[in-house]
Amino acid sequence: MADKQLMKPDDRDAVLAALVAKYPDAFISAIGPTGLFVPMPPEVDELGMRPVEGVSSMLGLVVAEDHRLVVDSWTQAVVEGVSGCRVRLSAAPDDKTRIHFIDASHRFGVYLGIISGSTLSAEQTLRPENVRPRHVTMVKNQISVVIEVGDEITALLGWTPAELTGERTLGLVHPDDQERAIASWVDMLGTPSGSARRVRLRHLHRDGRTVWFEVTNHNFLNDPDDPRVVAEMLDISDEMAAQEAVRAAEQLMRRLTETIPLAILQAGHDGRITFLNERAAQQVKAQVGGPLTEALLDLAEPMDRPVVAEALSGVLTGKDTDFEYGHREPGAGSRRIRANLRALTDDAGTVTGAIVCLADVTEEALLRERLWRQATFDALTGCHNRAATMTALREALDADDPHAGTAVIFLDLNAFKPINDRYGHAAGDLLLSHVAVSLRSAVPPGAIVGRIGGDEFVAVCRDVTGRDHAERIGADLLTALSTARVRIGGNTLIPHASLGVAWSPYGSGDSDDLLAQADAAMYAVKRSRTGDLATQR
Description:
Layout: H1 9-22, E1 27-31, E2 37-38, H2 42-45, E3 50-51, H3 67-80, E4 82-89, E5 92-104, E6 110-116, E7 135-140, E8 146-149, H4 152-157, H5 161-164, H6 178-189, E9 196-204, E10 210-220, E11 228-235, H7 237-259, E12 263-268, E13 273-276, H8 278-284, H9 292-297, H10 305-315, E14 321-329, E15 333-345, E16 351-360, H11 362-376, H12 386-397, E17 405-413, H13 416-423, H14 425-442, E18 448-451, E19 456-461, H15 467-481, E20 486-488, E21 491-493, E22 497-505, H16 511-528, E23 533-535
Parallel strand pairs: 1-3, 22-23
Antiparallel strand pairs: 1-2, 1-6, 4-5, 5-6, 7-8, 7-11, 9-10, 10-11, 12-13, 12-16, 14-15, 15-16, 17-19, 17-22, 18-19, 20-21
Helix pairs in contact: 13-14, 14-15
């Protein structure tokens, strides 16, 4: 509003005249520069409108939800000279009424507030919001008998001043707080004249409910002319109710965190622990006030510490993270932990801390690992199964990182069926296991060996520079195969195989076609019975 200009006096007078003419029965108030009502100038009374009484400002007439509208409109009137807003009055909360603010200081020395609207008939009166007092002064003698008390006591505790005069105030105090009240009174009696002692006590309302007061007893008992104790009693029920709500919420959170199977930690914006449940205290050996990062990093597996450190740093800047890491729990060996980190923020979005939930997922991780192995590897030989082999081949052909090319080496054992027939399937299985170990030891780094049939193996090799390179790998596999000797019933079994090679440069080739080419090359060797190695051309 800095660029707005105050409306000229004549224009403000014109607005006032129009309102008086249109709403002759409207309510009117005189307002000082602070926004509070001031005595009505006689000239304003002559306008004929009904004066607002029994309230100190427009806020006392408006429902609480509309207070902000009134404040904003008043600010606008101060800057521009005239403003208006539609609000709900306490006298008519279901209807909208308009409040007009006019700077009439040039004419009457005050601002004017005019309340108009069709819902306000000529017979209606405004009902100011009933503001409950929060403070009362009570005067007592040396034995805490009431000498006098302010009229506010009736609104606060339901008793009239006359009913309490001559009574001891201890009878007003909740039984559970009477011992504390006596101790505070005795302490006050021992203080020098003019000193004060403060205590928070629950008092009993006439209707039986409890009201919290902060009582400040001022010791004037040594005053020769008027020995007395002056008690300033401030109603703090709202504050204590808010504290109780916070305490109840904290207790609920603590109870919940003790019943769920998670380690839960809370940290402040400085990364220091402000809360942890019993499970967390046992799992990470931390305590309130200690650094969260240190608590988690100390027991994290070394290879996972960078991930843990990055996540903890990120959550304190507002980045939520979920991850798993290895955790060396004392006496329990290595465990797998799932961590869920969530940032805590205030209403402005500023990070105030973080919540960390840690779940032991060791059994789940082992199950995932077991299922993954079952879905990936052949149970007998430990080689990749057919599906996993084809997946590895497609990934090699479609890799984002460029490499020289992909080789597929298809190997089929010769005369394997007679071994099963003569020595039994157990001997055949043993031979297959030895073959698998030999092949895996001979392939280049990064290559995989898969078993795609009974006695059929496939090696998938990345970064192979050409067909010659692929054939050299195939030759190495045949050499390694000769070492896979198995002793069965006094006989030494030496496996032989037919082998076919196919190769595709990076960025071309189809997995099914490449495997078919290697398969065809292998069968060409079997049919010729002239050698152990062939390559597609």
